[in-house]
Design goal:
This is DNA-directed RNA polymerase I subunit RPA43-like. Keywords: DNA-directed RNA polymerase, Nucleus, Phosphoprotein, Transcription. By secondary structure, the chain is α+β, with helices and mostly antiparallel strands. Helix content is about 35%, strand content about 35%. Strand 4 and strand 5 form a beta hairpin. The radius of gyration is 31 Å and the shape is elongated.
C-alpha cells in the first residue's frame, strides 16, 4: 500500500478509496479548501509545483483536518490567478480538493500486522506506515492470546491512546484478537480447492459434450451409409 519515492511516502489511491468505505479504518475523505503559497519561478511548472507542495504534507499531521494527510485527488483552483500580499514575493492562492485523512479515535477497533514481539509487548504496523504499541498485561486472556501471536500475524486491537502531533505519530492499543498466517493459508487452500473442483467439473462437462457430438456424428454417418446401400440396391 505504501511506497517510498525520494524519501517521500506514497499511499495507493485505490486502497485509500476502499478504506474510506471500510468501518473502523480511521480513514476519511474531506472536500475542502487549502491555502498555498509559491515562488514566482514555480509558475513555470505550476501543476508540478502544486503537487510538490501537497506531497510534502503527506504522512504528516495536518492541523486543518486534525489528522494525518494520506493523499488527495480532484484538485481545482478557485480563481484563475494568485495574489501577492504587501511586500511578500510569494504568490498566494486557494485550491479545492478531496483529501484522504487518517483520524484514528480512542475506543475504535483496528487491525495491524505484527512486526516485533517480546514477552510483554507487541509492535504492529497499520497500513504499512503507522506504528502501534500494544503492551501485554497480566490479564489471563490477554496473556494467553499474546503467547499465540507471531511476527507477520494480523491482530485486532482497541485504541487506548493517540498522539498524532509528534514527529512520529504514536498509537497505543489493547490486544483483542489475532488472525494467524496458518488460518490465512487454510483459507487460501480452500479457495484453490474450490477453483480446482470447478475446473474439473468444467473439464468433465466439456468431455461429455465432445462424446455426445462424436456419437451424433457416428449416427449421422451410419444413416448416410444405409441410404447409400438402399440406393445401390434400387
Amino acid at each position: 500500500m505504501v511506497k517510498l519515492s525520494n524519501a517521500r511516502v506514497n499511499f495507493n489511491p485505490k486502497l485509500l478509496k476502499k478504506l474510506t468505505q471500510k468501518e473502523n479504518s480511521g480513514v476519511e475523505v474531506h472536500t475542502t479548501v487549502q491555502h498555498l503559497a509559491i515562488y514566482p519561478h514555480q509558475l513555470n511548472n505550476f501543476n508540478d509545483s502544486v503537487k510538490g507542495l501537497l506531497n510534502a504534507k503527506i504522512a504528516k499531521y495536518n492541523k486543518t483536518f486534525n489528522g494525518i494527510l494520506l493523499g488527495y485527488k480532484n484538485i481545482k483552483l478557485l480563481k484563475d490567478g494568485g495574489v501577492i500580499q504587501d511586500d511578500s514575493y510569494y504568490i498566494h492562492f486557494d485550491l479545492q480538493a478531496d483529501f484522504y485523512i487518517f483520524k484514528p479515535e480512542i475506543g475504535k477497533i483496528m487491525e495491524g500486522v505484527v512486526k516485533r514481539k517480546s514477552k510483554d509487548h507487541i509492535g504492529a504496523l497499520v497500513y504499512e506506515a503507522f506504528n502501534v504499541s500494544i503492551p501485554l498485561t497480566s490479564d489471563d486472556d490477554e496473556e494467553e492470546l499474546g503467547n499465540t501471536v507471531k511476527v507477520g500475524d494480523t491482530v485486532t486491537f482497541q485504541i487506548i491512546y493517540i498522539n498524532l502531533t509528534s514527529r512520529l505519530p504514536y498509537i497505543r492499543g489493547r490486544l483483542m484478537s489475532e488472525t494467524t498466517e496458518t488460518e490465512t493459508n487454510e483459507i487460501s487452500e480452500i479457495k484453490i480447492k474450490k477453483r480446482k473442483n470447478k475446473s474439473k467439473t468444467e473439464t468433465t462437462e466439456t468431455e461429455t459434450n465432445e462424446t455426445t457430438e462424436t456419437k451424433v456424428k457416428k449416427k449421422k454417418s451410419k444413416t448416410k451409409e444405409k441410404k447409400v446401400e438402399e440406393m445401390e440396391d434400387d
